[in-house]
Amino acid sequence: MTDTPERKTAVALSYDGKNTPTVTAKGQDLLAEEIIALAKANGIHIHEDPHLANFLNMLELGEAIPKELYLLIAELLAFVYMLDGKFPEQWNNLHKKIVAEA
């Protein structure tokens, strides 16, 4: 999402855990506000970055993000997973090893 004096932009991505994230919704002004409200009502995390929103807004609905954004989007997804209390299996095993050794 981006807030500028001229326009508000929102872009929603979908990720199934296997394929490249794709654009599932996008809009400006009133439509952007509706996308954001719907996301908040459904407990979907929102990341505010004007440059990213403007770049993603150039993509078509259903279009996969370009390779240039893989790392950035992966970092955002990993952060969201951690906010939701989801960690890779290896992290749980590492935590158990640390506790057992202490």
From TrEMBL:
Keywords, comma-separated and alphabetical: Bacterial flagellum protein export, Protein transport, Transport
InterPro entries for this protein: T3SS_substrate_exporter (IPR006135), T3SS_substrate_exporter_C (IPR029025)
Domain of life (superkingdom): Bacteria
Annotated GO biological process: protein secretion
GO cellular component: plasma membrane
Family of the protein in this entry: Belongs to the type III secretion exporter family.
Role summary: Required for formation of the rod structure in the basal body of the flagellar apparatus. Together with FliI and FliH, may constitute the export apparatus of flagellin.
Name of this protein: Flagellar biosynthetic protein FlhB
